[in-house]
């Protein structure tokens, strides 16, 4: 077996570095939306409105009970068809198409939002009930108590877990190859089938993913230790 | 100032307060004593509606606070509370703990709130700990910060829920000293405690509760030296 890493590095790496931008963009934007979604879902789940809470519970079960890849396919292929169908029924001729990266961001926001909402929810429940009572006794309303005294420690305690999810998300962007986003895996796959440098191509791909995820998990570890020290 | 009429509270089937009647006048220090599970803490928590009473009335300056709805927050600003386990905000420094509520609820400017907080910390003897976090303070110090925090809202009444029960014995004195000082300044106080010495020295009136009832009440001399009720006698003979 003859390996030609020099050639692979020279030609594949520049192409992958172009894909890194897309991966980072989708990861950061998707994660930001996921955080917001997670916070809203967690608060909704804990609200006194039984209907809202139960509805969100069902959504979470749906999302956690189906594979992320299937969800991405659903958003990319099914949702536009449904939208067009509804519009056609209303008498509008339409051909809505969703950009693949946008679908990825939506998919990650929903999927990771649901998973992380459970993290936030249990962190909220873990805050000592005395904090709530102390806030109420000072004259804060239930709502203000939540925002001033419950969420800050809950979010802070969730940061290490959020870090893990961020690393998972950056790796999960590889799923987007399946809905034609020009990210790392798709670029590598194309390259490998054109050059037959299969071993080299996928080895380089794995290394690039490692270079992305390792610093992140290191950073997560540092933040976690720092938080523990100041607690 | 505070009139409590026929107050009752049930948790499911369990009746913890039955027909409690208490009137507290301005500047009065009322100390509630009694065995564990007698309803003392529940009674105190009903006064600022941390527990919702199931029956009766609580009149504050003539208004029934059970019908306040959302305005209950305005009432709670006037009734401070000090908890057994302090419940300081762990992510804030000592001074931030004290200045936070006036800033957020009464829109007191930061500078003014800070000055006031510093004065209050001085009053409880902890101005040198202003920038420390609660986790680095002893229990007694934390409790004194909690008192300063409650005072920062300039309450008309202060409720103390076993303020020294979670403290090491040698730390109890400092907290009681601060409470004595407040009583001397004319603060209206309702104190649930097991510190009989404090009750004797500081209380204007002592209430003995047992089984959810007020069994006996009167000035401390009377309750401690010649209790009328058998249960009061039995309780006091065990704790004194």
From TrEMBL, chain A:
Domain of life: Bacteria
Entry keywords, A to Z: Amino-acid transport, Cell membrane, Membrane, Transmembrane, Transmembrane helix, Transport
Transmembrane stretches, start-end: 20-43, 55-76, 96-115, 162-181, 201-223
ABC transmembrane type-1 domain boundaries: 20-220
CDD domains: TM_PBP2
Record localization: Cell membrane
Matches recorded under SUPFAM superfamilies: MetI-like (SSF161098)
Biological process per Gene Ontology, one example term: amino acid transport
GO MF annotation list: transmembrane transporter activity
Topology versus the membrane: Multi-pass membrane protein
NCBIfam families: HEQRo_perm_3TM
Family label: Belongs to the binding-protein-dependent transport system permease family.
Name this protein carries in UniProt: Polar amino acid ABC transporter permease
Species of provenance: Lacrimispora algidixylanolytica
TrEMBL record, chain B:
Keywords attached to this entry: Amino-acid transport, ATP-binding, Cell membrane, Membrane, Nucleotide-binding, Transport
Membrane topology: Peripheral membrane protein
UniProt subcellular location: Cell membrane
SUPFAM superfamilies: P-loop containing nucleoside triphosphate hydrolases
One cellular component term from this protein's GO annotations in UniProt: plasma membrane
An MF annotation (GO) of this entry: ABC-type amino acid transporter activity
Ranges that cross the membrane: none
Family listed: Belongs to the ABC transporter superfamily.
Protein name: Peptide ABC transporter ATP-binding protein
Taxonomic lineage from the root: Bacteria, Bacillati, Bacillota, Clostridia, Lachnospirales
């Amino acid at each position: 077996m003859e390996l030609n890493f020099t050639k692979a590095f020279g030609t594949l790496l520049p192409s992958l570095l172009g894909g890194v931008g897309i991966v980072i963009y989708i990861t950061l934007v998707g994660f930001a939306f996921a955080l917001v979604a997670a916070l809203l879902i967690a608060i909704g789940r804990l609200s006194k409105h039984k209907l809202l809470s139960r509805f969100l519970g069902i959504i979470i079960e749906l999302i956690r009970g189906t594979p992320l890849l299937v969800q991405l396919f659903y958003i990319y292929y099914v949702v536009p068809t449904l939208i067009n169908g509804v519009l056609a029924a209303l008498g509008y001729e339409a051909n809505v198409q969703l950009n693949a990266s946008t679908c990825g961001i939506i998919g990650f926001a929903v999927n990771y939002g649901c998973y992380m909402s459970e993290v936030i929810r249990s962190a909220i429940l873990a805050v000592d009930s005395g904090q709530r009572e102390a806030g109420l006794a000072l004259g804060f309303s239930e709502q203000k108590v939540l925002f001033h005294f419950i969420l800050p420690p809950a979010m802070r305690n969730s940061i290490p877990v959020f870090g893990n999810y961020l690393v998972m998300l950056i790796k999960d962007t590889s799923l987007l190859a399946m809905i034609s986003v020009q990210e790392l895996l798709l670029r590598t796959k194309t390259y490998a089938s054109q050059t037959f440098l299969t071993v080299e191509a996928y080895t380089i791909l794995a290394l690039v993913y490692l270079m992305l995820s390792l610093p992140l998990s290191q950073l997560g570890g540092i933040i976690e230790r720092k938080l523990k020290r100041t607690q | 100032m505070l009139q409590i009429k026929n107050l009752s509270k049930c948790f499911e089937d369990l009746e913890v307060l039955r027909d409690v009647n208490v009137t507290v006048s301005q500047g009065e220090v009322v100390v509630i004593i009694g065995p564990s599970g007698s309803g003392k803490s529940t009674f105190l928590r009903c006064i600022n509606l941390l527990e919702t009473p199931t029956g009766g009335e609580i009149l504050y300056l003539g208004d029934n606070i059970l019908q306040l709805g959302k305005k209950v927050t305005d009432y709670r600003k006037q009734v401070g509370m000090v908890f057994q386990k302090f419940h300081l905000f762990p992510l804030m420094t000592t001074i931030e703990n004290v200045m936070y509520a006036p800033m957020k609820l009464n829109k007191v400017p930061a500078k003014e709130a800070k000055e006031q907080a510093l004065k209050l910390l001085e009053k409880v003897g902890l101005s040198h700990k202003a920038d420390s976090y609660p986790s680095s303070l002893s229990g007694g110090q934390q409790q004194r910060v909690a008192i300063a925090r409650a005072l920062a809202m300039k309450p008309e009444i202060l409720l103390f829920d076993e303020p020294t029960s979670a403290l090491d014995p040698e730390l109890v004195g400092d907290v009681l000293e601060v409470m004595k000082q407040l009583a001397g300044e004319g603060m209206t106080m309702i104190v649930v405690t097991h510190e009989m010495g404090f009750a004797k020295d500081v209380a204007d009136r002592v209430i003995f509760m047992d089984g959810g009832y007020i069994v006996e009440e009167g000035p401390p001399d009377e309750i401690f030296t010649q209790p009328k009720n058998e249960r009061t006698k039995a309780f006091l003979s065990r704790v004194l």
